[in-house]
Specification:
Elements lengths: L7 H12 L4 H18 L8 H13 L4 H18 L24 H9 L4 H12 L4 H5 L6 E2 L4 E4 L8 E4 L2 H14 L17 H14 L8 H14 L4 H8 L4 H4 L7 H6 L19
Helix pairs in contact: 2-4, 5-9, 6-8, 6-10
Length: about 290
């Protein structure tokens, strides 16, 4: 069966995204959101009016759709109408939806140790240890190369992380020894953690399955994902009084306010703060009359 030809309008949008070096996944998502809008409209999206867009946002708001999905659709439509159609006036009234900021799940150091010990095999023990020991995102762990390990400077190079930014993170002696053990066992050539086909890196899905299996084997009831190890890394550093700006650099956050989220869950840090009540020098428990 021949592939369905791409319409000139869609091709123009793809060209606009390619010119701005959008990743392939982002391009597919943007095209999908515009296609969904066209289905709602019942005609070509380039004939839409601002009232059509207002109706569509109302339609999205009434559906059981997460704020993140709504905002992704709005970003795609803004790009399509602003860049491809050169009609920014049509999307002027499209607004993003506030997402609830939930405190992330964090493991204790004892729970992290149990989880890593329960990892299904040396490969996943090493990969999950990198996620925790260096605070990497799941995609960053999967795409590490053997050449990214610098044992002289004791760093790991994260190439083209989120926002297409390179950065360096620390490489602890214990993690280096574990990675050497993994290298001696598997002799990976290019990718540090190759997939089933060694030409490609392991998939994020493989890491997700591995961390779920490890958490179950370790008897951890919390809802755990590879990103939980990154959250735990940041929280444990904050509890060790590491400067939050250093943690920001290690995590690759563009904004300090993103890193500041961990101050809400760093229990040791919160507990060690001295309340101003303590400085008043009052004896509040001396024969106080009952209320």
């Amino acid at each position: 069966m021949l592939d369905k030809p791409i319409s000139p309008l869609r091709q123009r949008m793809i060209d606009d995204m390619t010119a701005r070096r959008f990743k392939e996944k982002v391009q597919k998502d943007y095209v999908r959101h515009v296609r969904t809008f066209a289905a709602f409209l019942g005609r070509s999206p380039d004939t839409a009016t601002s009232e059509d867009l207002r109706r569509y946002q109302l339609h999205l708001a009434k559906q059981q759709i997460s704020p993140g999905s709504i905002n992704a659709a709005i970003a795609a439509l803004r790009f399509f109408f602003t860049m491809t159609l050169e009609r920014p006036d049509l999307v002027r009234h499209l607004t993003t939806v506030n997402k609830p900021r939930k405190a992330p799940v964090v493991l204790s150091q004892e729970e992290v140790a149990r989880l890593l010990e329960a990892a299904p095999g040396l490969k996943y023990k090493a990969a999950l240890s990198v996620a925790y020991g260096a605070g990497l995102r799941v995609s960053e762990v999967a795409n590490l190369k053997v050449s990214d390990i610098d044992s002289q400077r004791m760093t790991l190079r994260v190439e083209q992380g989120k926002g297409q930014r390179d950065r360096y993170v620390m490489l602890s002696p214990q993690l280096l020894e574990l990675l050497r053990e993994w290298w001696r066992a598997a002799r990976p050539r290019a990718w540090l953690f190759p997939g089933r086909d060694p030409v490609n890196p392991m998939s994020a899905r493989q890491l997700v399955r591995a961390v779920h299996a490890a958490a179950q084997a370790a008897g951890i009831a919390k809802r755990v994902s590879p990103h939980t190890l990154r959250h735990s890394f940041a929280t444990h550093l904050l509890e060790q009084n590491v400067d939050i700006r250093v943690i920001q650099v290690l995590l690759g956050h563009a904004k300090l306010e993103t890193t500041a989220l961990y101050t809400r869950i760093a229990v040791n840090t919160i507990r060690d703060v001295k309340s101003p009540l303590e400085r008043l020098g009052l004896n509040l428990t001396s024969r106080s009359s009952p209320a």
